[in-house]
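User: Could you go from structure to sequence for me? I need the amino acid at each position, not a summary. Structure tokens:
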């Protein structure tokens, strides 16, 4: 087999065989295929596309390049939830405990944030003592004991994806649906869950800015899951505005704790949580042909009864986290150490938009995100909104509070946040759930 012939074949728009795809991926790892040759193949894929079978074969080749977890010993259908990334997206911190409290095992491997997109592991790092460094044995043990686990992705989880993504990042081949879908799903399949619910973000703060692109990505990932023998559903959700009231690691943990304890529940976040949990429940062994309304009531009861909050504390404790810290957050006795700056409304009206992409840039400037994978982040920094889209404001109202380590960062962040907020006289509401596939 010859890599140049494989490149030529894809350049002509022809479908690659399973053997050709495996040859290219494995050759990249063992050095028989050079990085410049793989870069050429990636560009051909970007320009000519891949069908569902090709995309699945690429996914499986990346999955099989490293460890693949076997969760069959858990004895029940294990579910996972994956978001394609958003601004203020703390849903993983909420849906895991909700599902685990209902007897649905959740096995999750999460990543760290990069750019304007936050990462769940960074958020959990803001809880003292919490460890996301979990061995394969402990990963399974925690699912059995607690009902859920959230661990950092191991170095040997789909290592081919890491190499391929590094090449894509510097060759202009990131924005290809087959390459995006295979990258995401290779890690999801390697982590072993039986059922996967995808939260595909769409809007200014998401990779897919329009609905049709988000739908295409969702369908591509669902096709991969089904061809790989997994259950899979996708929820397409709006990311034109930040999700919830906060953006930033500790701030988002605080919002998740207040959500689970019933203290503060942003309506859009609540609706998305219920939808994602409902879809996860339908993939589980607990589902018995319940009506949609019955499933929704089961989810809402897990939240309102306090069962999900109790499970969150159990989860934190099981992974070494300080539960007293969680309780201090819940009781509002925790003081965030960073410097605080309040943004005050300069006019009256209705907030008609808060641009998610601009808010993501602001959180990055405040210190809550990473410019590169090596960047240090400030877990305490970020933005907490006192008013959100649809709220009426009067001149002088506090719209948001910013947190950062230095006054210079606060002043820079302030200008970015002010630029992201639009105030007008008329507001037309929009739904956070754009579609379910």
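Assistant: Here is the amino acid at each position, in order:
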């Amino acid at each position: 087999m010859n890599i140049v012939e494989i490149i030529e074949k894809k350049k002509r728009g022809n479908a690659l065989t399973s053997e050709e795809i495996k040859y290219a991926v494995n050759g990249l790892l063992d050095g028989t295929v050079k990085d410049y040759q793989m870069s050429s193949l990636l560009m051909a894929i970007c320009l000519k596309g891949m069908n569902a079978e090709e995309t699945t074969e690429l996914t499986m080749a990346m999955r099989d390049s490293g460890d693949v977890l076997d969760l069959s010993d858990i004895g029940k259908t294990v579910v996972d939830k994956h978001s394609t990334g958003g601004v203020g997206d703390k849903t993983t911190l909420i849906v895991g405990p909700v599902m685990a409290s209902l007897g649905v095992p959740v096995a999750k491997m999460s990543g760290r944030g990069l750019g304007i997109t936050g990462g769940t592991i960074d958020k959990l790092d803001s809880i003292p003592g919490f460890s996301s460094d979990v061995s394969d044995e402990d990963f399974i043990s925690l699912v059995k004991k607690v009902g859920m686990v959230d661990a950092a992705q191991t170095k040997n989880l789909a290592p081919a994806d890491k190499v391929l993504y590094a090449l894509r990042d510097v060759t202009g081949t990131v924005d290809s649906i087959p390459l995006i879908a295979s990258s995401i799903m290779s890690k999801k399949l390697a982590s072993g869950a039986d059922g996967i619910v995808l939260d595909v973000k769409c809007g200014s703060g998401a990779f897919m800015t329009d609905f049709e692109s988000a739908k295409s990505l969702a369908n591509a990932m669902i096709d991969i899951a089904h061809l790989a023998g997994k259950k899979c559903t996708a929820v397409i959700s709006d990311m034109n505005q930040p999700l919830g009231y906060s953006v930033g690691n500790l701030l988002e943990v605080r919002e998740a704790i207040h959500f689970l304890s019933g203290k503060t529940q942003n309506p859009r976040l609540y609706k998305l949580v219920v939808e994602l949990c409902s879809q996860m429940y339908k993939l589980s062994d607990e589902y018995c042909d319940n009506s949609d309304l019955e499933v929704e009531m089961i989810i809402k009861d897990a939240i309102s009864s306090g069962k999900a909050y109790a499970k969150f504390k159990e989860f934190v404790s099981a992974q070494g986290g300080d539960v007293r810290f969680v309780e201090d957050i819940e009781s509002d006795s925790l003081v965030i150490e960073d410097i605080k700056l309040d943004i005050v409304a300069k006019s009256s009206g209705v907030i008609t938009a808060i641009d998610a992409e601009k808010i993501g840039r602001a959180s990055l400037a405040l210190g809550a995100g990473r410019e590169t994978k090596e960047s240090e982040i400030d877990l305490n920094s970020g933005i907490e909104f006192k008013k959100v889209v649809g709220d009426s404001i009067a001149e002088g109202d506090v719209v948001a509070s910013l947190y950062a380590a230095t006054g210079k960062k606060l002043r820079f962040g302030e200008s970015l946040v002010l630029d992201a907020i639009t105030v007008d006289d008329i507001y037309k509401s929009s739904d956070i759930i754009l579609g379910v596939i």
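One structural detail worth keeping in mind: Residues 346 and 395 are 5 Å apart (CA to CA).
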